[in-house]
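Example record used in the benchmark description.
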Amino acid sequence: MFKKTHPAATLLILLLTAVSASAQLRYKKNKFIKSKQVQIKGTTIHATIKIYYPVLKSGAPVAMVRTINQIIQARVLAPFSDKKKIRRAGSTKILFNRFYRAFIKYTREAEHPVSWKMTRSFSLKQAASRIITLSENSHVLTAGVRLNSRTLFYTFLPGRGRLSLGKIVKKDRLNELHALGERYFRRVRNINPGIKFEKLGLWIKKFRLNENFQFTKKGLLFRFNSSEIAPYAFGPTTFTIPYPVFNPYLKRRFQGKQGR
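Model output (structure tokens):
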């Protein structure tokens, strides 16, 4: 449980103090685990789904609680593959049945079939600033080809809803921030400024920060998942813009001295 604390005057002070929230998040932990096995040429293989997710009860405005739970539900039931346009499942049972049917079809066609596994886990945390972050980590292994991993962040502030760059960054400095983000991206991937992304096989004509970010103790963390801006082999890219650098781009109501 989180201990109550008095909110400070500014967002960044609160974000960087790493103390608990004044409003306690209360949620119920849920899980869905199901597995089926088949015998193929004397070998037992499995189709398995494991999902761990919270259902938020209180600790935020009613409308925000409803919105967060709707996002969680949508992501829990999201299709297991991006290759085909499949509608979201109506329940975890339907999701597993679709997963299993695809698995069985694969076992009949593959020369050396292997097990399939999908894991999704969700977590909620709240900073002293009352900012709520919903994190999703998903891993899908099908056809024995690769492990498709993805991490998504959803950031909320009571009274302002889900936060986006447009909500927290000064409008006239947003393009500058994208240019700053490109420098951090190039630095972490060891890409020289004069090299065009397209020559390296990246799907980037003009670099733009995405909305997959979260506030951390050190700064604003951005993550580009595998297959988002480049082929899967390029892997994910994560970098943090420190608050001393990021602070001038913030709208005034989000600015403040850095805490320790």
